[in-house]
Amino acid sequence: MTTIPYVPPPRSVLHYPYVDDDLLVVVKPSGLLSVPGRGAEKSDCLLSRVRDDYPDALIVHRLDMETSGLLILARNPVAHRALSMQFQARQVSKLYIAVVDGLIESDQNEIAHPLITDWPNRPLQKVDRSLGKPSLTRYRVVQRQPDENLTRVELEPVTGRSHQLRVHLMSIGHPILGDALYGRPDAVARADRLMLHASRLSLTHPASAQTLVLASPSPF
To answer: Which Pfam families does the protein's record reference (predicted)?
Structure first.
């Protein structure tokens, strides 16, 4: 089993791009668990910090500890059920920004490698073409930087497998910079954090049925 010591980032004022009576959207910092982990040392998480401001907050979905960006929480059971159903039905549009090692050749493409848990080394995931679950990521190159041998990309996860974006990019030879789980040592050393940020969400508001589009600029 692969483990990474949990050292939550210092407490700071959380940024809420959107809040109403049914839901709130918060920008999660990198290095913070979305929900409590096992053990008292992992009780500090985004959910507990949000509940200091909004005690009625209910988690709807999660981001990896190392990933930063937009996270939606419900504020009542009815909204929680409606939002959870949207995520399960893949009706929520998600866009991420990442910086990867190397120069990606295609301006845009799809990665459809099936994924499965690497049980002897969990929580690692891996590509398994015979037993893996269907997984699809679309990407678009935003900028290539030949002088630094890196590429900035937009990522759209069509499916929502654990670590999907990280494993898919690693599988095509372009690991995300700062990825201590899947990156080569030289790619890990090039950044002080995982260079992955949930930058945009589009969903249907559970009460008004209006389309809600939210954005958060990349911090890197």
So the answer is: PseudoU_synth_2
